[in-house]
Design a protein that fits this description.
Two copies of one chain form a homodimer. Chain A is an alpha/beta fold. Chain A folds into two domains: 8-179, 3-Layer(aba) Sandwich (Rossmann fold); 184-293, 6-phosphogluconate dehydrogenase C-terminal like domain (6-phosphogluconate dehydrogenase C-terminal fold), CATH 1.10.3660. The first copy, chain A, has twelve helices and nine strands. Chain A has helices spanning 18-30, 44-53, 63-67, 82-89, 107-113, 160-172, 182-209, 212-220, 226-233, 237-246, 248-271, 274-293, and strands at residues 8-14, 34-40, 58-60, 72-75, 98-101, 122-124, 126-128, 149-152, 176-179. A six-stranded parallel β-sheet of chain A has the order 3-2-1-4-5-6. In chain A, strand 8 (149-152), helix 6 (160-172) and strand 9 (176-179) form a beta-alpha-beta unit. In chain A, helix 7 (182-209) crosses helix 9 (226-233) and helix 7 packs across helix 11. The longest helix of chain A is centred in the middle third of the chain and has 28 residues, at 182-209. Chain A is globular and about 65 Å long. At the A-B interface, helix 7, helix 8, helix 9, helix 10 and helix 11 of A face helix 7, helix 8, helix 9, helix 10 and helix 11 of B.
Chain lengths: 297, 297
């Protein structure tokens, strides 16, 4: 516990996977994020596990009860569940409360949740850009957000004090903060995260479709390249299904750009255009070096 | 040094990057692979560094001198350099010597090197399936091959004793051994390694082409997904250019399969086919789990 006055009296976490349980663990460890942590999940089994893990003051199977009296409510379920969750909690949100989320698609969250937010409740969409391939309440850890960015996409007219409180919550989790247009957020995330995941899932399927003999060999000889793709592809299926469906336009655009570029590479391979191939590989190295300089590698 | 009689009196390594310098380090540490290690590289600068690193008994800028009196010669340069190297060393290979390689494409090696091998020299193509994104003589380390596979693709009629000696060399490096048809090798490697690298290089290019503002953001927010692709994409450009050009048919076939599958995913995203997307993600997880069970993750 680092002491200091808690930002919130009661933080309600709706969903307690990798992100939610990491926030809970940081809040528990620091003590200056929320005086009380209430956790909601879809199943009693998950809530029982949360009780065992000990980072919640209270667990609630009913989201309406979980948000009761909470001055900060954080949606941390897969984005496809947000519309339903929001409609169930909306009548129970406290006047003056902040409603925020951690979803990877921001236009869809504003579309699905925005209209349901009662007057007097401050809606501050957010996205901590951090993750691993693990999911569930056991997967979280306190350093997940350190040195990573959290992107806030508040709709026009959002109370600046509410935006600042959400920013401060993420700063206390170790994040750097940036305010962004929701549409721009969705385009950037499509290329840095959503498309790489779609590609990783797809190539695992391509390999899985090869004849039975090759399949065993794919697994045996996956030492380089493929292995990294399967790590990405091990992520939570429902979360990713929801992200793809909720960032459709940007994802399809980035996939179209990538496919054009892959076809250009195919053409260079077919016609033996060594210079083109070498240039493309060099660009990959350059981007990698820039990442290392930015400490995002 | 583990003692024991050395497999070879003199091992000549032609090329001293990640793979070659790892073999040299293992041979130096164990002492039972070769009594003497001779290293050849294209530049004096590399050879000077090899002398500093201390894992060679002798360095030679002329490949013909490097193979003089060697009972094992290992081609460890990019595969595109093999034809030239082979033609320069062929007249100088000792009768009874073993000529082997570590190239990632095996049909091309047999095509390029096979016809140049003098009578009385045993040609045993091999491919240790191991690697990192680093290259050069500093990149090697003694545990690179431990628990990994080395694939041998000896042409029909190759002396079994020569094949066994190459297999034993790799076993002493920590590898498991499998004999494989060269064409089958090239297909399997196309899906587990060559295509993932082509995709990683390509998506880095796609990101690099986005407008200047997004580009910086790509780098800032690369925390998940993209970051793993850039790691793969950081590999040696000349080595990968040569691999792509020398495994053209298998690589183009696997890219075509992958592209069909990616288009099917695009269609599922466009039409909101949640079941299809979830199935595809589940398959990725299944493959990842199999890899973990096989200890190749």
């Amino acid at each position: 516990m680092t002491g200091g006055v808690p930002l919130f009296r009661r933080l309600a976490l709706l969903g307690i996977g990798l992100i939610g349980s990491s926030v809970a663990r940081v809040a528990r460890e620091r003590g200056d994020i929320a005086a009380e942590i209430v956790v909601n999940a879809r199943t009693q089994k998950t809530l029982d596990r949360v009780v065992q893990l000990g980072f919640a003051d209270r667990v609630e199977i009913d989201p309406a009860r979980a948000v009761d009296g909470a001055d900060c409510v954080m949606l941390a379920a897969p984005v496809g569940a947000f519309a339903d969750l929001a409609s169930r909690i909306a009548p129970h949100l406290m006047a003056g409360a902040i409603l925020t989320d951690v979803g990877s698609t921001k236009q869809s969250v504003i579309r699905d949740v925005g209209p349901l937010v009662p007057a007097g409740v401050h809606f501050v969409p957010a996205h901590p850009v951090a993750g691993t391939e693990y999911s569930g309440p056991d997967a979280g850890f306190t350093t997940l957000f350190q040195g990573r960015w959290t992107l806030l996409t508040p709709p026009p007219g959002t109370d600046p004090d509410a935006v600042e409180k959400v920013a401060e919550l993420w700063r206390r989790c170790g994040s750097m903060i940036e305010i962004m247009e929701p549409a721009h957020h969705d385009r950037v995330l499509a290329i840095v995260s959503h498309l790489p995941h779609l590609i990783a899932f797809t190539i695992c399927g391509t390999a899985d479709d090869l004849e039975a003999q090759s399949k065993q060999e794919v697994l045996n000889f996956a030492a380089s390249g493929f292995r990294d793709f399967t790590r990405i592809a091990a992520s939570d299926p429902v979360m990713w299904r929801d992200i793809f469906l909720n960032n459709r336009e940007a994802l399809l655009e980035m996939l179209a750009r990538f496919t054009e570029d892959a076809q250009a590479m195919a053409r260079a391979v077919r016609w033996g255009d060594a210079g083109y191939i070498e240039d493309m590989v060099q660009r990959g190295r350059k981007i990698r070096r820039s990442l290392i300089e930015l400490k995002q590698a």
